[in-house]
Amino acid sequence: MKVLVIGGAGYIGSHVVKEMMKAGHEVTVFDNLSSGLRCNLFPKNDFIYGNILIERDLDQAFARGFDAFVHLAAFKAAGESMVEPEKYSINNITGTLNIMNAAVKHNCKKMIFSSSAAVFGSPEYLPIDEDHPKNPENYYGFTKLEIERFMNWYDQLRGMRFAALRYFNAAGYDPEGEIRGLEQNPANLLPRVMEVAAGMKSGMKVFGTDYDTRDGTCIRDYVHVTDLARAHVMALDYITKNDKSLTVNLGTEKGTTVKEIIDAARKITGKEIPSEDVERRPGDPACLYATSKRAKELLGWEPKYSDVDTLVKTTWEVYR
Ligand SMILES: NC(=O)c1ccc[n+]([C@@H]2O[C@H](COP(=O)([O-])OP(=O)(O)OC[C@H]3O[C@@H](n4cnc5c(N)ncnc54)[C@H](O)[C@@H]3O)[C@@H](O)[C@H]2O)c1
User: Fold this and answer.
1) Choosing a second label site near 317 at 20 to 30 A (CA), which of 15, 39, 61, 219?
2) How many Å lie between the centroid of ligand 1 and the Cα of residue 181?
3) Model's pTM, two decimal places?
4) Does position 284 have pLDDT exceeding 90, yes or no?
5) In what residue span(s) does the NAD-dependent epimerase/dehydratase domain sit (predicted)?
6) Closest atom of ligand 1 to CA, residue 115
7) 189-220+253-319 homologous superfamily
């Protein structure tokens, strides 16, 4: 299929492009390089330098004729979204509506969307399944949930079949070492640990060591970015074969503690990685992890690279 990957020069997008190409799809990347990197582009792909806030850019891109598109272009800093909500309204919501309208106009009616665990807010039970109540606790999560609702309406009214993929914590890098562009402004734990290991920062803080978890630190669900990328290919197959939309969580069903990540990083990098135990951060739940039973049943998706050692090793290969 001819697939347009919007945000394909970014961290997750570049991995999606690689898996789409491996599956035999013909990929074009659309990106304004605001946080994406030229070095993440594959020479084999067409690249359109464009902005999802400029309707003409999207119109011209979709006019080339695509069977499907993946939409990853967004701002993603939950904390920032609480102080600058307008930025998130414009790029995430207006940008997405621009994309959906251009796609419908040019009859491109298969959409794979990067949603997020942030649509759920604090867990009411674990593991989090797709039916868990949705009470986003930051504006970023709200934008993702609203877009899921828009997609449901466009499905009904315009026959736009979509896959909403709710990523938990994306981590790791291409196990084949081909994609090496560093994620810009990462907010997750692993890149922070790597920055210390690589000497870019002198130390790090562990927020809260008195949680009711196996070692007192928070538990999160880290999913290897290549596993996430594989799910996009499977989701495209699913919506194509079944002519039916899909919303799934992508997690590993087993969380990892902050200390387990730091210990694995010390072992694998051989670096000291100085860390300081400090107070909890307000609003950080003790545990957050997902069941991916539905993704397994419907897509046959199972994580292959999301064990702690592979996550750390593939990230260290890029940071070292
Ligand atoms: N990284 C995670 O842990 C995580 C978790 C859940 C969901 N997500 C979602 O996955 C998607 C990709 O995240 P990522 O981590 O790869 O981030 P990223 O910042 O590396 O990628 C986003 C890409 O979109 C492009 N972009 C942004 N605004 C644009 C615009 N106006 N026009 C054209 N291109 C634009 C950027 O240049 C970049 O290449 C985002 O939608 C994010 O919300 C990420």
Assistant:
1) 219
2) 14
3) 0.97
4) no
5) 3-251
6) 7
7) UDP-galactose 4-epimerase, domain 1 (3.90.25.10)
